[in-house]
Amino acid sequence: MKIAILDRDGCLNQWDGESFIASPDAWQPLPGALEAVARLNRAGWHVVIATNQPGLGRGLFDVTELNAVHARMHKELAAAGARVDAVFFCPHAPDENCECRKPGKALFEQIAERFGVDGRELWVMGSCAAHLQAGAAMGARLFLVCTGASADVALDGALPPGIPAGTRRFASLEALADMLVPEIPVEPQADGS
Ligand SMILES: [Zn+2]
User: Fold this and answer.
1) Mean of the pLDDT values across residues 136-147?
2) How far is it, in rounded angstroms, from Cα 40 to Cα 20?
3) What pTM was estimated for this model as a whole?
4) Is residue 189 part of a domain?
5) Angle of helix 33-42 relative to helix 63-79, nearest 10 degrees?
6) Contact (CB, 8 A) for 31 and 69
7) CA of 87 relative to ligand 1 center, distance in Å
8) Which range of residues forms the domain containing residue 153?
9) Is 122 helix (H, G, I), strand (E, B) or coil?
10) How far is the CA of 25 from the centre of ligand 1 (A)?
């Protein structure tokens, strides 16, 4: 089984790297990202999201509002023919010192347990170091998408600080899906010559 663990903000939806997505209207997909999930689904990946949502712990929004954001996300995914099986989130503020806030790996362990897989079956895709560090702690395959918090990262040269060694990088989730799930070329038509 192949499980893709996506970061949410800045990987699937637009994000400036610091503000909070507190309402459904604030959740806007990145270009091509929903279609990328659909392609991964068709090629056999189960796609789940693991996201830190410290705005919950800080009281900036509540679980009802988070659920409304995710309802919009699932609706837009479905309209693109895509499916995210589950959303795992850390609801804590950084000063609560929980184990589930990434780069802690507790969310990823829950995902592996839910699907009955080990770390080698996890494909971790995201735009921030903490997400990839949690993946590295699981022995997962690691993919940096250079959108959101990593929009300024170059596609070549040294990896940015905090990104685990061995991480492969792509311009976007769409570009990553292009590599993992290439379009099947159309057979050339015989022209009789
Ligand atoms: Zn937590």
Assistant:
1) 98
2) 27
3) 0.93
4) no
5) 70
6) no
7) 14
8) 2-180
9) strand
10) 25
- Distance from residue 177's CA to the centre of ligand 1 (Å): 29
Task: Judge whether 115 lies within some domain.
Answer: yes
Please tell me the total count of domains within the chain: 1
Structural domain contains residue 188: no
7 labelled catalytic: yes
Q: Identity (one letter) of the amino acid at 34?
A: L
Q: Which CATH number is 63's domain given?
A: 3.40.50.1000
* Mean pLDDT of all residues in 145-173: 96
Question: Is residue 118 among the annotated active site residues?
Answer: no
Among the options 7, 25, 156, 178, which is catalytic? 7
Q: How far apart are CA 73 and CA 25, in angstroms?
A: 10
Residue 193 is predicted with a pLDDT of 53
Q: Is 137 within the bounds of a domain? A: yes
Report how far ligand 1's centroid is from the alpha carbon of 183 (Å): 39
Angle at 162 (CA atoms; ends 157, 166), nearest 5 degrees: 55
